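During the no-cost extension, the postdoctoral fellow (Dr. R.K.) reprocessed legacy sequence entries with the updated structure-token encoder. One reprocessed record is reproduced below for audit purposes.
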Amino acid sequence: MSHPKQENKYNIFQVLQIDQREVLMCRVLEDLLNPMGSHGQGREFLDKFIQMFLPDRYEELKNKRISVHKEYPITKDRRIDIALHGENVFIPIEVKINAGDQPNQCYDYYNYASQRDLNSKVVYVTKTGYFPSSYSMTSADKKMKLSDSLIKCLSFNTDIIKWLKEIIDMSNNEDLKIVLHQYSDAIEHYCNERPKDEDECVVEVITQTEDSFRSALKIVDAMNDAKAAIMKKLFDDIETAMQPLA
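Re-encoded structure tokens follow.
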């Protein structure tokens, strides 16, 4: 018995669930940005990325030699997802698929980058282009916090898809175009999937780090005191409101 032809596209990224794996999605992005990447387009894709998202640096960087590396180590336990670097150039790119922020993460990235590139910004790529958390932008001693102007937020659902459409049009390699279309479709699938419910989001935040878990335990321990304080404030407000009537 024959089956009707399926209209749905066969997408290898989704079949292998790569669209949910931060490391693998990041590797594809790194290879596309890399002038030495297997796409064979030289630095055309990188230049388009800089032109679109770091336009104030395009003229400065277009003639500079830039290397692109994934999981670039800056300390024993800190690795930047993607790093663009060259002479007086260092641009960290942090990609967030499902993982949460780490304490001081963006602050450490910028501090490292700014010592090598006075005009550096942290490029922060997420599903919808939101800013990193406050604890990611704050120093370990809590005394310093990055200005929002030092973070360049990009979204998968708008910015990266727009860039992919641009580089698809730039390429004359039909096989590469098919892969780029599949990568773009996988991103759209990832961005359009059902959002997690509130409980799942809370669990994800609590389990990000040991500090987050310890803080959650302290909140649980303090909850009864917090309820009592709220009730006392409520009764005090009622008593104050009743005084004119009395």
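Confidence is low (pLDDT under 50) at residues 1-7. The first strand starts at residue 67 and ends at 75. The remaining legacy entries will be reprocessed before the final report is submitted.
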